[in-house]
């Protein structure tokens, strides 16, 4: 019976191979067609349309470089781009410095404590946008709980401007530190206890273990988490918009610039597609770097 079943598989594969090429392609890619169609409709097609609009003329037709020239020659556009990169890099660095050790501690907890903290991190990771802006104002606003509590104890505490650099970093970090921990948690499990024991047998100290074994293995994954956090922070829209109390925020960002442009501004309607394409360029470069880091980290597996 086992021999008959073993012979049936090659026969079935020969039948599929002898079919029409279209039938063979459909049998291979058929299960993935729905997700391919959805991705092409909701992701690839809008990106192509946005790229085309960034080179379109005033009437939406033709081909021109005037849109890019006007944006790249604008001081406000460069300020928004620079602010976005600075904010995203700072938030990603804070998430790495705080989330890395936290992730390591989480992997060394007992199952019960780890389950509890994983639940808290998952809730914090999904708490963003308008809700997070409201929580920030309730805690660190002019009449927030922490602000009033410190003032009642005699401290001359001035809360950070919600739409300023420091305020945005604090608000972003609440959601991105848990996200970083959840992203890098599987990588922390790669550091095995018997490796540390083997290093001890060779006379290595704990700093030497982390310098020559632990960190070289974890750095690609920590860097990959930094890149994903950086990319996600660049595209944030709801949170900085909710924390901005005027049409001109204290810390201009690309997404806020696009929002003002869509609602109507002095820059015309052709600036928004160009800024959107700049965001796509950041995302593509970041994802390529992310793949390279994962390939480097896979050498340890």
Walkthrough of the structure:
With 301 residues, the protein is an all-alpha fold. It is built from 14 helices and no strands. It has helices spanning 2-17, 21-29, 33-54, 66-72, 75-107, 111-125, 130-140, 145-152, 165-188, 193-201, 206-234, 238-243, 254-263, 271-298. The chain is globular, with a radius of gyration of 26 Å. It starts with a helix and ends with a helix. Residues 1-6 have low confidence and may be disordered. Its main location: membrane. The chain crosses the membrane at residues 32-51, 87-107, 119-143, 163-183, 218-239, 272-290. Residues 81-290 form the ABC transmembrane type-1 domain.
State the helix count: 14
H/E order of the elements?
HHHHHHHHHHHHHH
> Any idea what the shape is?
globular
The count of strands amounts to 0
- Which class do the helix and strand fractions yield? mainly alpha
């Amino acid at each position: 019976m086992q021999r008959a079943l073993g012979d049936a598989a090659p026969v079935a594969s020969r039948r599929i191979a002898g079919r029409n090429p279209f039938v063979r392609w459909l049998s291979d890619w058929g299960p993935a067609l729905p997700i391919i169609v959805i991705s092409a409709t909701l992701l690839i097609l809008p990106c192509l349309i946005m790229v085309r609009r960034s080179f379109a003329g005033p009437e939406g037709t033709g081909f021109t470089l005037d849109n890019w020239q006007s944006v790249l020659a604008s001081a406000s556009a460069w300020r928004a781009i620079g602010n976005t990169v600075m904010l995203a890099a700072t938030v990603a660095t804070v998430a790495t410095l705080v989330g890395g050790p936290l992730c390591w501690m989480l992997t060394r907890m007992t199952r019960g404590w780890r389950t509890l903290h994983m639940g808290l991190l998952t809730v914090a990771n999904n708490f963003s946008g308008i809700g997070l802006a409201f929580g920030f104002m309730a805690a660190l606003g002019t009449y927030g709980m922490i602000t009033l509590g410190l003032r009642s104890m005699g401290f001359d505490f001035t809360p950070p401007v919600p739409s300023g650099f420091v305020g945005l970093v604090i608000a972003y970090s609440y959601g991105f530190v848990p996200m970083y921990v959840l992203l890098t948690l599987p990588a922390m499990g790669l550091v095995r206890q018997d490796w540390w024991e083997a290093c001890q047998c060779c006379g290595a100290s704990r700093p030497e273990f982390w310098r020559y074994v632990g960190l070289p293995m974890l750095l690609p994954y920590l860097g990959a988490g930094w890149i994903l956090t950086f990319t996600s922070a660049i595209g944030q829209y709801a949170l900085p918009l909710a924390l901005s109390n005027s049409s001109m925020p204290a810390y201009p960002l690309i997404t806020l610039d696009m929002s003002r442009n869509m609602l109507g501004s002095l820059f015309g309607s052709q600036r928004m597609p160009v800024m959107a394409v700049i965001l796509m360029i950041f995302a593509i470069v970041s994802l390529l770097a992310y793949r390279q880091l994962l390939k480097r980290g896979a050498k340890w597996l």
